[in-house]
Design brief:
The complex is a heterodimer of chains A (330) and B (390). Chain A has a single domain, classed as ABC transporter involved in vitamin B12 uptake, BtuC (Orthogonal Bundle). Chain A is built from 14 helices and 4 strands. In chain A, strands 1-2 form a two-stranded antiparallel ribbon. Chain A starts with a helix and ends in an 18-residue tail after the last helix. In chain B, α5 packs across α12, α6 packs across α7 and α9 runs antiparallel to α15. Chain B has a single domain, classed as ABC transporter involved in vitamin B12 uptake, BtuC, CATH 1.10.3470. Classes of the chains: A mainly alpha (330), B mainly alpha (390). Chains A and B meet through α3, α4, α11, α13 and α14 of A and α7, α14 and α16 of B. Chain B: It comes from Azospirillum brasilense. Chain B: Keywords: Cell membrane, Membrane, Transmembrane, Transmembrane helix. Chain B: It is a multi-pass membrane protein.
C-alpha cells in the first residue's frame, strides 16, 4: 500500500465520520434551535421529544398514504404546532407548570403515536416502509465529476456536500437565520426581552402573551421538521420510540450552549460526533482496554451530557424569566 | 375589611384559602381533571374506530370485575404507590424527579442480587435483604443527580433523564454479558430459589385460612402501604421532613432558618430513589423471580401522574395509584379483546391525566372556586360579601 493510498483511506474515514455527524446532528440542531426560541422567550420546553415523535409519526403516516413527502412534512409541522399550542395554552394562558406540561406531552405522544400507527396500519405500531419517492429528496449538485480530480476538495465535495438531504440545507439556513434574528431583528430582540424581563416588555406596550405564543409556535414548526427528518429523510418510515431521547439531548445541548445559537450548534455537533464515533467503535478492539461492550459505547452521549452539565459548562445562566409564568400587574 | 383590601392589593384574587371547602381541592378538582382526560381519551378511541363506552366498560370489568382481576390491579397499584411516593417527596423539596424509571430499574438489580445470593435462606431474610439493597441502589441512583443539582447546578430534570438512559445501558450490559444464565439466549438471570420468593398474597392469606384466587399480588403491597404511613410521619412529623418541605417552599427562607438546601436536596433525592427502588422488590422478588430486561415498563413515569393526581399526599397517592392500577390491568385486557387497541392506549390516558391534573390544574380551579365563593356569599348574606365585593 502506497503512502498516498493510505492517506486517501484516512481521509475517507474522516469524511464518513463527518458525514454521519452531520446526518445525526440535523434533528438535534433543529430541536435545539426549536427550544432556543421558546426558552429565550421564557417558556421551558421539555416536550421536544414528544413533538418530534408526533412529527415523525404524522410525516411517515401521511407520506405513506399519499406518497407525497411534502404533505408529510406539512402534517408533521401541523401536529407538532398543535402540541406546542397545547403547551402554550397550559403554560402561557393558564400559567401551569412548564416542566410538567412538557412531560405530559412526551408521555401522551409516546402512547398516541404507536396507538394510531397500530390502528391505522396494523403493523405492530410502525408505518409501512416508505419507497424512495415518498421520502424527502436529496439535493444533487453539479460538478462532482469535474471536481473529483482535485485532492481533498474533490472527495469532500463528493462525500459531504453533494447529495445532502434538503432538510440539511434547510437546517443550515435556519442556523444562520436564527443568529441574525436574535442579534439583529426587532422580533428576535423582543423575544429575548420577554424571556429576561417580561414586565419591561409589557410596559413598552407589547403583549407578553402574544410574543410567547409566537415563540412556542416556531418551536412547534421546527420540532415538526425535526420529526419529519427522522422518519422521511434519515429513515424510511416511523418506528416505535424513534426519537430515542434526541429531544432530551437537544435540550442538554441548548443548556450546554448557554442558550446561544453558535455554542448550541457546536454542542449538537459534539453529541452527534460522539454518536458517529460510537457506531464506528462497536466491536473494534482499542489499545489497552480491548473491545468495549457496546452498551457502554452507546451510553457515551448520555454520560457526556451529565459530565458537561456538571463540569464544563460553568454556571449556565438561563434566561431570567425562563419557566416563570407572567402575571400582569393588577 | 382592611384585610380584604390588603389581599386585593397583593393580587390574590383567586384561590383565597379558607373560602372554599377543602374537598373541592382534594376531590372535586382531581375528579374534574380526570373526567377531562377521560373524555379526550374517549375521542382518541373514537378516532381509532371503537366505541369509547364499550371500551371503558370492558376496562373497568377486567380491572375490578372479579377477584383475580382485583389481585392483578393491586399488584400494579403496589408499584405505582412506590413511584408516586418517590415523585412526591422530590416535589415536596421543589424537585422534579423524572428518574423513577432508572431508580426502579437499579432497585430491581439490588433486589435481584439478593435473590441470587441467598439461595437456601428463609424468605423473610431475603425479603429484608431485598428491601435494603433495592433501597440502597435506588437511593444512590437518585442521590447522584441530587448531588449534581445541589453542588454543581446541573438541571435535575435533564440529569435524571440521562440517568434513566445510563441505567438502561448498564442493565442491558449486565444482563447480556455478566448475569445471564449460562447457555441462555434471552438476556435474563437464572430463576431464584423458590424458597426466597416473596410470598404472594394468596399464599400468605392461605396461612390464616383465607382463600383468594392466585395473582401476582404479593406481600410488597403491605410494604407499600407501610411506606405511605412512614412517608406521612417523616414528612409532617419529623424535623427532617420539615426541613425538606421548607427547602421546597422557599430555598432562601430555608437558608436564613439555618437549613442547608444542598443537604436536603440530596436527602430528598436519595429517599425518592429508594422509594422508586422498592418497585424492584415487588417485580423481581414478588413476581418475576429473576432479573430481566425492561421489567419497569414505565412505572417511573406513571409515578409522576400518580403524585400529581394524589396531590403529593400519601392518601391521595394510594387512591391515584389504584386508579392507574385499574387502567394498567384493564387496558392490558382490552388490548386482547380489541384488535385495534394496544397497550399504549393506557399511556395516552396517563399523559392526558398528567396534562390536566398537573399542567392545566388552573383550567377549572378559578372557575370552580369562584362558583363556591359566589354560593357562599349568596348564602351567607352580608357577613363579608356585601362589604368586600360591593
Amino acid at each position: 500500500m502506497t503512502g498516498e493510498q493510505r492517506m486517501d483511506d484516512a481521509l475517507l474515514v474522516v469524511l464518513l465520520l463527518a458525514d454521519a455527524t452531520i446526518r445525526v446532528a440535523t434533528p438535534l440542531v433543529l430541536a435545539a434551535f426549536a427550544a432556543l426560541y421558546s426558552e429565550r422567550a421564557g417558556v421551558v420546553d421539555i416536550g421536544l421529544e414528544g413533538k418530534m415523535l408526533a412529527g415523525a409519526f404524522f410525516a411517515a403516516a401521511v407520506a405513506s398514504s399519499t406518497g407525497n413527502p411534502w404533505l408529510g412534512l406539512g402534517a408533521a409541522i401541523a401536529a407538532s404546532v398543535a402540541l406546542a399550542l397545547v403547551h402554550g395554552f397550559a403554560c402561557i394562558t393558564h400559567k401551569g407548570n412548564q416542566v410538567v406540561s412538557g412531560m405530559a406531552i412526551n408521555i401522551l405522544v409516546a402512547g398516541l403515536a404507536p396507538t394510531l400507527a397500530y390502528a391505522w396500519f396494523r403493523q405492530g405500531g410502525q408505518t409501512p416502509l416508505l419507497p424512495g419517492e415518498a421520502r424527502l429528496p436529496q439535493i444533487h449538485l453539479p460538478g462532482v465529476e469535474a471536481l473529483s480530480g482535485i485532492p481533498i476538495l474533490g472527495p469532500v465535495y463528493r462525500e459531504l456536500i453533494d447529495d445532502a438531504n434538503v432538510l440539511i440545507w434547510l437546517t443550515v439556513l435556519l442556523v444562520v437565520a436564527t443568529h441574525w434574528l436574535f442579534t439583529r431583528s426587532r422580533f428576535g430582540l423582543r423575544l429575548r426581552a420577554v424571556g429576561e424581563n417580561p414586565s419591561a416588555v409589557d410596559t413598552a406596550g407589547l403583549s407578553v402573551t402574544r410574543l410567547r405564543y409566537q415563540a412556542v409556535i416556531i418551536t412547534g414548526v421546527l420540532t415538526g421538521i425535526a420529526g419529519a427528518y427522522l422518519s422521511t429523510a434519515h429513515g424510511a418510515g416511523f418506528v416505535r420510540d424513534m426519537t430515542a431521547g434526541k429531544g432530551y439531548l437537544a435540550l442538554a445541548a441548548l443548556i450546554f450552549g448557554k442558550w446561544r445559537p453558535w455554542p448550541t450548534l457546536f454542542a449538537c455537533l459534539l453529541f452527534a460526533f460522539t454518536d458517529a464515533v460510537q457506531v464506528r467503535l462497536q466491536g473494534v478492539p482499542l489499545p489497552v482496554v480491548g473491545v468495549i461492550p457496546v452498551q457502554f459505547i452507546q451510553m457515551l452521549p448520555y454520560v457526556l451530557t451529565v459530565l458537561l452539565l456538571a463540569g464544563f459548562v460553568g454556571r449556565a445562566v438561563a434566561p431570567k424569566a425562563s419557566g416563570v409564568p407572567y402575571v400582569k400587574e393588577r | 375589611m382592611a384585610q380584604d383590601a390588603a389581599q386585593g392589593v397583593t393580587g390574590r384574587g383567586f384561590g383565597r384559602p379558607g373560602e372554599v371547602p377543602g374537598w373541592v381541592g382534594y376531590a372535586l378538582l382531581p375528579l374534574l381533571n380526570l373526567l377531562a382526560a377521560l373524555v379526550l381519551s374517549g375521542l382518541v378511541i373514537l378516532v381509532i374506530g371503537e366505541n369509547p363506552l364499550d371500551v371503558l366498560a370492558l376496562l373497568v370489568t377486567e380491572a375490578v370485575g372479579y377477584p383475580e382481576a382485583i389481585g392483578y390491579t393491586l399488584y400494579y397499584t403496589t408499584s405505582y404507590i412506590f413511584t408516586g411516593l418517590a415523585v412526591a417527596i422530590a416535589f415536596h423539596c421543589g424537585l422534579f424527579n423524572i428518574g423513577g424509571e432508572g431508580q426502579a430499574y437499579l432497585g430491581g438489580l439490588g433486589a435481584g442480587l439478593v435473590g441470587l445470593a441467598l439461595t437456601g435462606w428463609p424468605w423473610p431474610v431475603a425479603a429484608l435483604g431485598a428491601v435494603v439493597l433495592s433501597a440502597l441502589f435506588g437511593a444512590v441512583w437518585g442521590a447522584v443527580p441530587g448531588w449534581l443539582q445541589a453542588k454543581r447546578g446541573s438541571h435535575i430534570v435533564i440529569t435524571t433523564i440521562m440517568f434513566n438512559f445510563i441505567a438502561a445501558a448498564i442493565m442491558t450490559y449486565l444482563l447480556v454479558d455478566v448475569l445471564i444464565r449460562p447457555g441462555s439466549q434471552s438476556p435474563e438471570t437464572r430463576e431464584f430459589d423458590p424458597g426466597v420468593w416473596l410470598p404472594t398474597m394468596d399464599r400468605a392469606l392461605g396461612w390464616f385460612g383465607v382463600a383468594i384466587p392466585a395473582s401476582p399480588l404479593n406481600l410488597s403491597f403491605l410494604w407499600a402501604l407501610a411506606c405511605c404511613a412512614l412517608f406521612y410521619l417523616f414528612l409532617w412529623r419529623t424535623r427532617w421532613g420539615y426541613e425538606i418541605r421548607t427547602v421546597g417552599r422557599n430555598e432562601r427562607a430555608a437558608v436564613y432558618a439555618g437549613i442547608s438546601p444542598a443537604r436536603n436536596i440530596i436527602l430528598a433525592m436519595a429517599i425518592s430513589g429508594a422509594l422508586a427502588g422498592f418497585v424492584g422488590v415487588n417485580e423481581i422478588m414478588g413476581v418475576q423471580h429473576r432479573i430481566l430486561l425492561n421489567f419497569t415498563g414505565g412505572v417511573g413515569f406513571v409515578g409522576i401522574a400518580v403524585a400529581l393526581m394524589g396531590r403529593n399526599h400519601p392518601v391521595g397517592i394510594i387512591l391515584a395509584a389504584l386508579l392507574f392500577g385499574v387502567l394498567a390491568q384493564g387496558g392490558g385486557q382490552v388490548s386482547f379483546e380489541y384488535p385495534t387497541v394496544n397497550r399504549e392506549l393506557v399511556m395516552v390516558i396517563q399523559g392526558l391525566v398528567i396534562l390536566f391534573a398537573g399542567a392545566l390544574e388552573n383550567l377549572f380551579k378559578p372557575r370552580v372556586e369562584a362558583l363556591f365563593r359566589r354560593r357562599r356569599e349568596w348564602r351567607g348574606g352580608g357577613h363579608d360579601g356585601g362589604t368586600a365585593h360591593g
